[in-house]
Design brief:
Layout lengths: L6 H4 L10 H26 L3 H15 L3 H19 L16 E3 L16 E3 L20 H7 L93 H10 L10 H8 L61 H7 L5 H20 L4 H4 L3 H12 L4 H15 L4 H4 L9 E6 L10 E6 L7 H9 L10 H17 L1 H9 L3 H11 L14 H12 L1 H7 L3 H4 L1 H5 L8 H22 L6 H5 L1 H17 L4 H22 L12 H7 L1 H9 L7 H21 L5 H16 L2 H19 L8 H24 L15 H13 L2 H4 L14 H17 L4 H12 L7 H13 L1 H7 L6 H5 L2 H13 L28 H5 L21 H7 L18 H19 L10 H12 L18 H11 L12 E3 L9 H9 L5 H15 L4 H6 L10 H7 L6 H4 L13 H4 L6 H13 L5 H15 L29 H14 L2 H8 L5 E3 L7 H24 L1
Parallel strand pairs: 5-6
Antiparallel strand pairs: 1-2, 3-4
Length: 1299
Amino acid sequence: MKWEPTEDDEEHLPAPISGPEPVVAQAQNMSKLLQEVGEENDRRIAGMTEEERMAERDDLLQKFGGGVGEMLRLRRLKREGKAANRNGHPGHVDIQSPIPRTLRIAPLGVNKGNAMGIDTAVSMLPDDSPKSADAMEPPKTPVSRAELLEDLNRPRSAMRGSTAHSDTSSTIRRLRFADVTPSDIHVYPSQPTSPRAVHMLLAPPDDGAADGIPVTQLKFRSLRPETIHKRGDGPAVWLAQEQPSELSSSMDASMDMDALEEGTPEDIRHRFFPNEDAAQLGLEWITAPSATEQSSDAPRFDLQGMPIPRSLQTTLPTHLGLHHTSSSLAGYTLDDLLYLSRSTNAAQRATVLGVLAKIILRIRQGHISSDMLGPESRERILKSGIAALGEKGSVGARAVEVVWEAVVGGDESYMLQEGVELWGEEKRKVSSESQDDEPPSLIPGLDAISSIPLEEVLPLIQSYFTVPPSFPAVTLSQLLGILHRLTSHYEAHASAIIKAPHFLASILSAWLAYKPSDFPGESAQDPKLLQLLSVVAASSRSNGEALAVDVPNTLLRFIAQMPQTSQSVEERELRESLMAETLHFYATLGRYGLGCKVALIAQELMSLLVKYIAKTLSEGDITPSFARLAEAFFEVREIWTTCAIDPHKTSPPHELIWSQIEAFGWVDDLLQIAVHVPAEQDTVWAGLWSATAAYAEGAIINGVNKGQDERKKVLEGLRELTQDGNGRVAIDSALEDLQNCLDMYDGIGKPKYLESLGDVARSARLLGAAIRLSSSLITSATSTSDPLGLPGASISRLMDNLLNTTILHDALDITAPPGAYVHLRPLTTLLMNELKLSHRLGTMSMESWSTRALRILRHLLPGDEAYAHWIFQTFVAGAKDLADSMDIAIDDSIINQRCLEDVLPFYMHAIRPDHKYSVASFTSDPQSLPLWTRITLPSLAALHKPRTSTLKAPVGLPLKHDYLFQPLSDLLRSATTTAFESFPVSWNASETEVTRATLFGAEMYQTLLLETHPLEALRREEIVFGCMRVVMLEHGQPQGDSSEDVFRDAVVSGQMKRLLEPFLISPSSPALASYNISSTQEPSLEAAAKDYLGSGVPFYQFYTDLLALYEAISFADPVFSALLLPPLSMPYPPDYRQLFWGENSVAPRMVRTEVGGVPAEGLGEFLWPVEGSTEMLGRYVRALVDGTVGGFLRVVARHHVACSIWLSPAPVASDNPTPATHASPNTRSTPPEGGETRRRHLLLALLRSGKKQVVADILTYQPEVLCEGAPMTGREERLAWVRSWGGQDVVSRLDASLS
């Protein structure tokens, strides 16, 4: 790099003097200086070993290339020749100088801004300039500048193009740049170009003096010789640059350099690339922007990742580093950046990767719209970063930054949704396999993060963790964050990490070996690795078992490193964080019953930790890291206590037993800490209550006399705290906070939605833990008072308010954040703990308690299977008492034949359909420890997948809205369902008994909820489809006697009638009611049947089978007949009506259901809009004339025929074939056909039939339900219309029919 004296440097230079003496003195000083430097170098070389010399030699060759020796030799000879001239021999230089007489180069020191170390200030001088080298002997073989630079060649940069590889000829000069990093080049804010721009790379300012100054206001030293300030009268020192004679003569003849405008492309080429042809492709980047080139639609970015306005893309100067593409526009498109990210030049590649990281950051911050770059932009950038993983130096670090921004960033949904998978589906482009140029199609697939090939990425990540470290702490921390995000997102990623050979072991070993001196100012051990271990273990039992072998003992060192008061705040917080994450990892393993032996090994260390927690709480110095440590301590105490309750459930068994718990005095530790907990530490109180409750529950099983003494001890130790102390204040505050959160809750999609859910969950967790503790301390079976004196009435009202809000529904909506429903786990736990406490104390009536239990049941989540099982068992045990209290008749056969017990296994299978997939509960349960296969909740997308999807999570909770009919579904699919595999061997119930119990449960459910909470009760379509499944039980069964049909059973028939009764068309409705065609319809039978039928079987096929079964075995059963009618309403497709009224169908002649016996919202949905199919109208006319229909069917047929005749057809628009008076956006019926001609033919057909009564009914018909926009005419208007086209003869025939 060349040096240019500044004003500060000039102060230390000797004053200029005239005459030849200064030249001699300067030469002597320079000679002396060179001699001293040479001697110093000789001494250093002499003191070096042979290995050190070779290492220095290799380093120089790597930095300066293979021609560095020849270059230094020539420079030395040149320097010696100048010294000889100064000593009185101006006419001869004893070297073959390559410097021509026709060129001069700017003196040394001018090019301070050239960070590349290349002599770029070349200028042509006139031939009549002083020739100080006339006596030089011309070289035999001239050495050109290009040839000299050829020796210093390094790998070519990818800067020449952005969308395709450059086809530049190999003769293009390849420049060798300095080995700089992206931070060594400073890019000033973009400004419009100046008339005479100075094109140069700018070094970053040494201080902050130039920050914020526009580039056009900065003062630069000119690169032209005439502007150089000489020191005194001394001669300017010029270096000559060789120029071939033919080029020199051509240039001399063609132009004068002074005539070129500075900054123009030709000026740049002649000053920087004098030996190159202007037509070379490699010099396209200096070409002036075309006047016709316009800004493209694709956004262009600067080096800070900010979009460049289109108005500036053609005006920004080239020295800003924004023109290294094939386009003359300033900035880089995303395609340009993705192409340049594969550059072979490390510095360039690192810079571009940094730009891509900034673009993702700005997209996330909202400064750039994601629509601007396209929906796949993030995935494309992510792939670019993954492709650079594993590279050394700044490229590898920038690649990690890109991947971190794309995968982790500041993702709110990730940071606030721990404990649930976050994967979802995206529409992904798939290219067509055909030879035609078809556009790619969009198919659903896993999102970009889930699709990362982790098996290929893990070895690259592993290469970053070396000892000693080769990357900074921030890069390694980002890598751990990436791994944590990937394992939290998709369970398959966690399994891939476990299966990768030596991956975790290698990273953990390197992580433990890092010393504070390796990362000055940074922590050597980042707690993110411990968090990663916990997430991997929580993803599956098999992963936990793999980690439980050696890792727990390895991490004991962090329990032993107790924080000290003498340490700095940062050191204490780091130790607390490491200790907290270690305890959380132990608790995660403990949920599977693994790693309990650590509790014995670390007992002494845990005793010290108890003292530290109590001391810190008493002093009030509670930091977030300490609060997290206290929570983790109580969490692991709760889990280990649960494991000790039943040591047979741990793996291996008997690693921790109850007697050891008592001997260690764990409950004393809890009571000791409880005295010092401040009231505002709600999370600490929640953990304390849960750990204490686990001990009390264990004492009931393992203690003498059901642990009366142990529970009494706990109650006495907490009585003061829960009555008047901080414990009661914390409970009251949580109760108030939760109520306030519910009052302010404004639904999904609002700002801070996840934060508000987190606040609700935090308060609910404390209340749920306090209620659980109170339940465990009840010592008498007949007790009716709360042991802790909790405000039961206030809590009960709060539970009702919670169930009345939509908060429990919203988080499970498909539009909710992917893992928001994890915050509902404390809510369902609170609801169930309160339900159990009120049931035990008897504080609610049986009817009220049952209503709340049924409402809670539908909100239970994966992991709450034990709660759902308890509710079903409680209902079965108290069904008769509940029915008696509600005056509901229950058949003796249901009680005497234990039908309710027989149906219970069906519901247990519905709750847990796959025992190989079992999510751990929110609170510890000793009986379920060996059953849990995972702790992490499945993704919300997995819950919404259809039953036949391979991505469907095999969980039963939350229950479907019509879960009560699940036994009927299993009976119909008895050949394929797995339900019977889990049934007891002694189970032998009949279909009729199962159906009776199922319908009784549905009847009780409707009685409890239909009046008070109608939205939570079973809907009309669900009841109708449930009854359809009852009558279909005969379909495919071996019974030959129709008397054995299930729907003929008197009990079953009566139950179906009672279930359908609330949904029948009311006979008390006004005769002339109004029906709005565009009114919102309730969910149709097609939607209600979708879960049972799956995506492969349409409901139409099911209805076809139902109709055939009706004609074969029903004998016009009234209930069966009523079930056929709902699909005949006009909102359904016309296929159903054509099937029912078909020529070969006998169902219309069998059905005699009256209007009041049809399960529908109203009669209007069957009447409007008027049928438009001529074929269907013909069938209606035939049925009326033949007299084969009656009741409801006759009303429908007469209405459509009469309205088709007397309602004039409206004009049909070209884009809407349905008349305006009959149109409906929700109608799928066939549009009218025939118009005026069809009206006449219908009336004439009736007249020719000779059925006077039918004709009279049609002539005088007035609809029972009117429709808006369809006015009916009177008798006189109708006769006038007939007379207008049929004459008096047709009118007379009508009069005869009326008479």
